[in-house]
Amino acid sequence: MSKPSPDVYESGRGMDAHNKVMREHRAERDETYDPHEPTRVWLDEDNTPDGVYQSLTIILNTGGCRWARAGGCTMCGYVAESVEGGSVTHEALMNQIDACLEHEQENIAEQSSAGNRTQSGDAEEKSGLIKIYTSGSFLDEREVPAETRQAIAETFADRERIVVESLPDFVQEERLNDFLDVGLETDVAIGLETANDRVRHDCVNKYFDFEDFVDAAETADEVGAGIKAYLLMKPPFLSEGEAVEDMKQSIEKCAEYAHTVSMNPCNVQRYTMVDELHFHGGYRPPWLWSVAEVLEATADAPAIVVSDPVGHGSDRGPHNCGECDDLVQEAIKDFDLRQDPSVFGEVSCDCEHTWEAVCERERSYNLPSRTERPLRSLTLLRPRSY
């Protein structure tokens, strides 16, 4: 695993301080999860270098991200949905895959009986694209053993393309070859979050550098695999305007190494530092206008640029005024599939003027749109019950 500089380990500073706070929040969790059931599974459509595919997205329930168990990223609550104990057996993970295949078949049957067709083909067709995520890294053999990875590759050998999620550390030739050797076009999704190392370290609390991402991209390229970069719009401690500029610069930089860049607007997840900041008035999720601004500005980047604003329109997700949220979300989804920035000229709302004023006047950690609760120093924040 990549090692940050020594000063981040100094007691009470840098990543040590972030990790201490994150461990306290994660300790609040009291839910338990069945290791034989996936965390989530759904059918969707995705834009790829080979066109739009119907996709089967799988989030496997594993023992959790090893970095998150140390403390982890300030905004990520996915480890809270992981199985306790730190590991899940091969048999249990394959039971999860079987459950996902059953879900796909049930949806195909429902679409067929209703006479529906998907945009990507007949309702009777299996998904050409498989996307597999965990709460950490699919290619980390502590989360997903080599035996399971190889069995999953064989299971989906009849599909066309697969995306697996991983931190840069685990992007290794032999692990990618399990998928390439069965004829699958293979992409690695890396949660880079930002091309700016300081933002990644100090705002996201992620340990690796941009150069580690570049090394992983080069390893993938050497064996014929692709890279899908995941970016995070508006981590804590950035103003709205700073977040917009960070994403524009990051997309341009990532497009040199990734064929697809997915910009994820930050949402407020339980058991995270962002959750505590949001509760005390110190964080507002990004505006949907910010998402539209970045997508429109980077439409000519040499990569597919997409966004999926999870929880759009809610207080804990990316949102505008409440009146136009669904319309802007529809424009974003349309852009994802067609890559046509003109879609954003078809939506408007009076709140766009407020967003413009926020971008112009707001400064880091000075959030005028969330002043209903007094903000306390981060050092005074304490865990709370939900």
Textual characterization of the structure:
- The protein has 386 residues and is an alpha/beta fold.
- 36% of the residues lie in helices and 14% in strands.
- The chain has 12 helices and 8 strands.
- It has helices at 14-26, 66-70, 90-114, 146-155, 173-180, 197-204, 210-223, 240-254, 273-279, 288-297, 325-338, 351-361; strands at residues 40-48, 51-59, 129-133, 161-165, 185-193, 226-233, 260-265, 304-307.
- An 8-stranded mixed beta sheet has the order 1-2-3-4-5-6-7-8.
- The longest helix is centred in the first third of the chain and has 25 residues, at 90-114.
- The protein is globular, with a radius of gyration of 21 Å.
- The two termini are 34 Å apart.
- Mean pLDDT is 87; it is low at 6-13, 118-123 and 368-386.
Short structural description:
By secondary structure, this protein is of the alpha/beta class.
